[in-house]
Amino acid sequence: MIQILFLFSLLVLSEAAVQDFCVGDLTGPESPAGYSCKKSDKVTVDDFVYSGLKMAGNTTNIISAAVTPAFSTQFPGLNGLGISMARLDLAPNGVIPMHTHPGASEVLVVVQGAILAGFVSSANDVYVKKLNKGDIMVFPQGLLHFQINARGIPSIAFVSFSSPLPGLQILDFALFANNLPSKLVEKTTFLDDATVKALKGVLGGTG
């Protein structure tokens, strides 16, 4: 009887472990579930290796910062595995503005310099900490959070996500970098017309 149960459990396990991985076929369409699987005879070891985080991102921009992603779009071996990474480069005075990842929690580790980081809970409680080299901080899924260079030298961090496509929405850009009418922005943020128009001018918004 025990031998029969053992054999049955092996059969169940073999049925459950149908597929080890699903390397993304980037030539096909992307869906909320990711990419379809690349044919197994086309998969190579290079699908599981990504070198794109070696180089610093370009911080010559309005936020003096750069985010270099290693999501399934750049790194197809991540497809379907529920993980991804990115590199953050913050020049002196660099900032990653308030933003949210609707599809993933985030873990950040500082590898150079220092970063002031924090998030706001759904109860509007604020959690802020200066992170030095080697420090790690977690940002729960969907909550607004930010990172600011806290030292006068270039600071670098690597972040990991609990999704191969975590999503991103930057609050400032959502409010001031599109054609959302100024009157609606003013009504929903309590900002005056001059301030809204000035911010739209800086970020390229209209309306």
Automatic annotation (TrEMBL):
| Disulfide bridge positions per record | 22-37
Q: Where in the cell is it found?
A: Secreted, Extracellular space, Apoplast
What superkingdom heads the lineage?
Eukaryota
Molecular-function GO term, any one: manganese ion binding
Q: What is its main location?
A: secreted
Classification via Gene3D superfamilies:
Jelly Rolls
Which amino acid positions bind Mn(2+), per UniProt?
99, 101, 106, 145
Official protein name in the record? Germin-like protein
Indicate the segments forming the Cupin type-1 domain, all copies: 51-197
Q: Which Pfam families match?
A: Cupin_1
Q: Which residues form a coiled coil?
A: none
**GO cellular-component terms in the record?**
apoplast
User: Which source organism?
Assistant: Heracleum sosnowskyi
SMART domains reported in the protein's UniProt record: Cupin_1 (SM00835)
- Record's PROSITE patterns? GERMIN
The UniProt family comment states: Belongs to the germin family.
Q: Which residues form the signal peptide?
A: 1-16
Which keywords appear in this protein's UniProt record, sorted alphabetically?
A: Apoplast, Disulfide bond, Manganese, Metal-binding, Secreted, Signal
Q: Which InterPro entries match?
A: Cupin_1, Germin, Germin_Mn-BS, RmlC-like_jellyroll, RmlC_Cupin_sf
Tell me which residues bind oxalate. 101, 106
